[in-house]
């Protein structure tokens, strides 16, 4: 059975634009997924990247145009300047880690729920009430927001180290069990073809 390690940030606009297409691809091929939220700003620093606010104006301008075009192309609501971005990604990341350990809900819906909250709903995913509501809407116990904080922090830190060691430098980033790497929501179709044996 194929497996996908999914490295992402709950603050990434490109992870938001991925929607749940990666989950659909995995289901089509019977692949399992491990969700690995990472501290993307620290990862940028570790792998030669630059946070958006520190990029040259020409890069920032193209990013703004590209995000707007991609959201329209995908038919997804999108706010280029969300009210709560950036914010602390740790609470939402810990919640995903706790939910993955607990089981019983829809992890794809949970991850996308946090991303949608940032980029389409102007919610602050660092706030406890938002974390709880997002957990509940994805079929998880909202009390997971309070449990496993220490293990969540440890896993979050370990995810960063793993990402840096495995060649991850942005989000979303997908790695198959045979170390094929796919970066960006615009490479999900290639991931699909690869799992189908066509690439």
Any overview of this molecule?
The protein has one domain: Glutaredoxin (3-Layer(aba) Sandwich), CATH 3.40.30.10. Helix 5 packs antiparallel against helix 6 (107-119). The protein has helices at residues 13-17, 21-29, 40-46, 57-74, 90-102, 107-119, 128-137, 149-165, 188-195, and strands at 3-8, 32-37, 173-176, 181-183. Strand 3 (173-176) and strand 4 (181-183) form a beta hairpin. A four-stranded mixed sheet has the order 2-1-3-4. It is an alpha+beta fold. The chain is built from nine helices and four strands, in the order βααβααααααββα. The protein is globular.
Furnish the topology, listing elements before pairings.
Elements: E1 3-8, H1 13-17, H2 21-29, E2 32-37, H3 40-46, H4 57-74, H5 90-102, H6 107-119, H7 128-137, H8 149-165, E3 173-176, E4 181-183, H9 188-195
Parallel strand pairs: 1-2
Antiparallel strand pairs: 1-3, 3-4
Helix pairs in contact: 2-9, 5-6, 5-8, 6-7
What brief labels describe this structure?
199 residues, Glutaredoxin, four-stranded mixed beta sheet, 4 strands, globular
In short:
The protein is an alpha+beta fold.
């Amino acid at each position: 059975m194929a497996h996908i390690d999914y490295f992402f940030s709950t603050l990434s606009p490109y992870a938001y634009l991925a929607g749940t297409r990666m989950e659909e691809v995995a289901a089509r091929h019977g692949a399992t997924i491990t969700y690995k939220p990472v501290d993307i700003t620290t990862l940028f620093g570790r792998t030669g990247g630059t946070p958006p606010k520190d990029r040259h104006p020409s890069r920032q301008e193209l990013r703004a145009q590209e995000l707007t075009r991609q959201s329209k192309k995908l038919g997804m609501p999108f706010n280029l300047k969300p009210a709560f971005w950036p914010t602390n990604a740790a609470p939402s990341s810990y919640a995903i880690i706790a939910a993955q350990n607990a089981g019983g809900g829809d992890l794809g819906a949970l991850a996308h729920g946090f991303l949608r909250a940032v980029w389409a709903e102007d919610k602050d995913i660092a706030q406890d009430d938002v974390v709880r509501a997002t957990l509940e809407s994805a079929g998880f116990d909202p009390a997971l927001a309070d449990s496993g904080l220490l293990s969540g922090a440890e896993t979050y830190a370990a995810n960063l180290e793993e990402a840096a060691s495995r060649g991850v430098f942005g989000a979303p980033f997908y790695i198959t069990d045979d170390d094929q790497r796919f970066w960006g929501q615009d490479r999900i179709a290639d991931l699909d073809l690869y799992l189908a044996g066509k690439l």
